[in-house]
Structure formats: structure tokens, C-alpha cells
């Protein structure tokens, strides 16, 4: 937790260099993506949420922290891609937040985990209305579509998104995640085929049990 609090301070200063240095030290000392995403970046952002809730920081500070965190994710992924020798395959996954949902850092982490496992990914970021999601999915035909939401009243979007995306002719697998999935039961919004993941650990387990999910760290 100490690292997460230290990182939160750097994110709030918008100090990209020092924040990257902290993450890179973790990376170089052998921490894996799950640890960096769950225990450092997510915990730092949760702490920022606490500071915001208790009026210790402003919305401007929160936005600066978010954009700095986004930078770290991109920078981390760039390094990861250079060092990992996971063989890529042709399985495709697309990632999006339901309509009006702005919190996208978590699903960006999920998309990076898929990519680390060799998947082709398309990350559509926040707030993607269903019609556009369907159109994009129909054109690209991903085998998996991951959705994220963080605000309780956005759960009302789940049923139409899940139903209409699952009904697409190529029958994609729909995966749902987000901070509330750990706290409440949302299965009633889905079908027998819908998968709800409570953490990136669960995503990782699922990825490792996929036919192409085996990591091959052959070569340098
Ligand atoms: C940064 C932030 C913002 C930023 C978002 C920026 C961005 N581009 O993402 C901004 C400033 C825009 C924002 C706005 C708002 N926010 Co806000 N925000 C946060 C904050 C501080 C951090 C969120 C975050 O990035 N966390 C880090 C990520 C990595 O965590 P995560 O999303 O949970 O993801 C993890 C898992 O859930 C999982 N995951 C996530 N998605 C998926 C998807 C799949 C498929 C899988 C497998 C896994 C997965 O992976 C991650 C790692 O485990 C949280 C505080 C908190 N406790 O989370 C509040 C928080 C979520 N926000 C909150 C609120 C209230 C709002 C606003 C309504 C405020 C307002 N009045 O305007 C708006 C709503 C905007 C909207 N329409 O969506 C509340 C929600 C409370 C509630 N009861 O629902 C929180 C909890 C703050 C609080 N303590 O009150 N917010």
C-alpha cells in the first residue's frame, strides 16, 4: 500500500517522470502486470478517490492524476511488449465502457492483459453508445467483447448491451467487469453465456486457460 500512496502523490503532481520511475522499478524488480495494475495503480487511484470524497483534492487534481495514470499504463505496455516474447494469435477482443460511463482505466488494464496474452485488441475507451458498439463489432467481429461500468445507475445499460451484442451473428462472448462487480450481483442483467469477472486475477486465470492463452517466453 505504501507504494500506492507514494504513487498517488506523484499522480496528483502530474509528475510523469517520477511516477514512471516508481513503476519501472517495480517492473525491473520482477513485479508482474497483475501486481502493478491491481496493487499499485488501482490502489493509488482508489486513494485519490478517497482524497476527493473527503474534499482534500479538487476535480482538477483528479483529472491530472487520471491522465498521468493513463500515461503510465501506455508507457508500461510499451515496455512490456518489447520484453515479452508471447506469441500473438488471431483471436480478437474489443473493449468499451457503456454509454455515459467515463471511468475507463480499469478496462484499459483488462485490454492490456489480453494483449499481453497475444490477443488482438481494440480499446474503445469511455462512453460508447450501443449502436456504435454494435456497428464496430459487426465490422471487426471480435470473439470477445468486454464491457465496463463503475456507476451504479449505469447498470441499467447492461441488459440491452449484453442482449444485443450476444445476439450478433458471430455470437461473441460478453465479459463484464468494473468496481461494482465485486460488491453486488449483476447476473440478472446477463444470460447463461455472460461472464462477470470480479478482478484482473480472474481475467488472467481465464486467459491462461484459453487454447492460445499459454505464455511462451521463448527467445529474448
Ligand atoms: C478517476 C475517477 C473519475 C474520473 C474518471 C476518469 C477516467 N477517464 O477514468 C472522472 C473525474 C471523470 C470521474 C467522474 C465521476 N465520478 Co469518479 N472516480 C474516479 C476514481 C477516483 C478512480 C477511478 C479509477 O480509475 N480507478 C482505478 C481503476 C483501475 O479501477 P476500476 O475502474 O475499479 O478497475 C478495476 C476493476 O474494477 C477491474 N475492471 C474495471 N473494468 C473492467 C472491465 C472488465 C471487462 C474487467 C474484466 C475488469 C474490469 O479492473 C481494474 C483493476 O482491478 C474513483 C474512486 C474509486 N474508488 O475507484 C471515483 C468514483 C468511481 N467516481 C465516483 C463518482 C460519483 C463520479 C461522478 C458521478 C462524479 C460527478 N459528480 O461528476 C462522475 C461520473 C462520471 C461518469 N459519468 O462516468 C464515485 C462512484 C460512487 C458510486 N456510488 O457509484 C467514486 C467511487 C468516487 C467516490 N469515492 O465517491 N471520476
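Sequence proposed for the structure above (220 residues):
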Amino acid at each position: 500500500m505504501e507504494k500506492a500512496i507514494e504513487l498517488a502523490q506523484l499522480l496528483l503532481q502530474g509528475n510523469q517522470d517520477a511516477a514512471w520511475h516508481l513503476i519501472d522499478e517495480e517492473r525491473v524488480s520482477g513485479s508482474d502486470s497483475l501486481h502493478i495494475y491491481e496493487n499499485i495503480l488501482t490502489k493509488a487511484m482508489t486513494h485519490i478517490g478517497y482524497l476527493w470524497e473527503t474534499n482534500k483534492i479538487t476535480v482538477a487534481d483528479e483529472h491530472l492524476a487520471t491522465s498521468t495514470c493513463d500515461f503510465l499504463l501506455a508507457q508500461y505496455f510499451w515496455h512490456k511488449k518489447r520484453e515479452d516474447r508471447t506469441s500473438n494469435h488471431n483471436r480478437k477482443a474489443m473493449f468499451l465502457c457503456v454509454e455515459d460511463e467515463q471511468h475507463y482505466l480499469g478496462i484499459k488494464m483488462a485490454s492490456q492483459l489480453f494483449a499481453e496474452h497475444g490477443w488482438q485488441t481494440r480499446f474503445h475507451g469511455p462512453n460508447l453508445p450501443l449502436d456504435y458498439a454494435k456497428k464496430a463489432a459487426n465490422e471487426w467481429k471480435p470473439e470477445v467483447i468486454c464491457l465496463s461500468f463503475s456507476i451504479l445507475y449505469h447498470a441499467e445499460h447492461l441488459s440491452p448491451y449484453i442482449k444485443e451484442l450476444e445476439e450478433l451473428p458471430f455470437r461473441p462472448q460478453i465479459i463484464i467487469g468494473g468496481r461494482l462487480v465485486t460488491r453486488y450481483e449483476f447476473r440478472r442483467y446477463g444470460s447463461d453465456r455472460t461472464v462477470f469477472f470480479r478482478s484482473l486475477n480472474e481475467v488472467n486465470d481465464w486467459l491462461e486457460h484459453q487454447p492460445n492463452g499459454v505464455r511462451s517466453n521463448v527467445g529474448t
